[in-house]
Design brief:
Layout (H helix, E strand, L loop, with lengths): L5 H7 L3 E6 L4 H8 L5 E5 L7 H12 L5 E4 L5 H10 L3 E4 L5 H11 L23 H7 L1 E6 L2 H5 L1 H5 L6 E4 L1 H7 L11 H17 L2 E5 L3 H10 L3 E6 H15 L15
Parallel strand pairs: 1-2, 1-8, 2-3, 3-4, 4-5, 5-6, 6-7, 7-8
This protein binds 3-hydroxypyruvic acid (3PY) and magnesium ion.
The site of 3-hydroxypyruvic acid (3PY) has 9 residues, from helix 9.
Length: 264
């Protein structure tokens, strides 16, 4: 089963909605990929996920035909290449703050002459007929995260780097870097202004813009504003919310143990 391509989705739809995976389990990955999402992201940065979990999760997602993205732990070439070899169609690279950072991420995603990716598509080649360096360079997407005030200041220089397919905003880190509370459901004027300014730059340049959405209302709002890549809260957050709602509706007091409202 060849998965749908992210490029195809972005070309054919005004907006797409993705599921976000933080739990190290192939069955929860399979469940989420069989709901209503257009793509799923496996979060190696803040999810509780290791490489063998990643492989099993990619196999779980493959049963649905949805494209999988991996958020790497950091902007690290070896990690990017291993995620792609295992079957991710693209990566979301956190904390890209300079053109040098962006170049590093892009080059790890592409085979020569466009980059430095090393040949060895162990699992991903099975799922895409005729997978070769040229077709892989076309298929694979490199999404960079803009999530600091510094990155917003340098966004034009960063987006001048060829080969960036999308920009994904991390509203939590963006808030923290501006001295504001971390949230994926921002209301503060300065926080919103930073987000809007990233979106406007992407729209001017025709770059896909994405963002983590803390609520369905916010996902609708950002969709109306033109974000093409919306991410839902993690399955861990959704599970927690569903369990709390059940307890509440069954007449239980919710004893808050820890903050536990997740990072997205
Ligand atoms: C952030 O909000 O900082 C993210 O990285 C998305 O969860
Ligand atoms: Mg972040």
């Amino acid at each position: 089963l060849s998965p749908t391509t992210l490029r195809g989705l972005w070309d054919s739809r005004s907006t797409t909605l993705g599921g976000w995976l933080a739990l190290p389990d192939s069955f929860s990955a399979e469940i989420v990929s069989r709901t209503g999402f257009d793509w799923v992201l496996i979060d190696m940065q803040h999810g509780l996920i290791g490489y063998s979990d990643l492989l099993a999760m990619l196999q779980g997602i493959s049963t649905s035909g949805l494209p999988a993205l991996v958020r790497t732990q950091w902007n690290d070439e070896s990690e990017i290449m291993k995620a792609l070899d295992a079957g991710a169609q693209g990566v979301v690279v956190p904390m890209v703050n300079s053109p040098e950072d962006a170049r590093k991420a892009v080059r790890a995603c592409r085979y020569p002459p466009l980059g430095i990716r090393s040949w060895g598509p162990t699992r991903v080649a099975m799922h895409h007929a005729g997978y070769d360096p040229t077709s892989a360079n076309k298929l694979t997407v490199c999404v960079i995260m803009i999530e600091t005030v510094d990155a917003v200041r340098r966004i034009d220089d960063i987006l001048d780097v060829p080969g960036i397919d999308g920009v994904f905003i991390g509203p939590n880190d963006l808030g923290v870097s501006a001295g504001l509370p971390p949230t994926a459901d921002p209301t503060d004027g300065e926080h919103m202004h930073l987000i809007e300014s990233i979106l406007n730059t992407c729209q001017k340049r025709g770059t896909i813009a994405g963002i983590a959405c803390g609520s369905p209302d916010l996902a609708r709002k950002w969709s109306d504003r033109g974000f093409q890549m919306l991410a839902a809260p993690s399955e861990a957050s959704l599970l927690r919310e569903a369990a709390q709602n059940f307890c509440r509706q069954a007449g239980r007091d919710i004893h808050q143990r820890g903050r536990g409202d997740g990072y997205t």
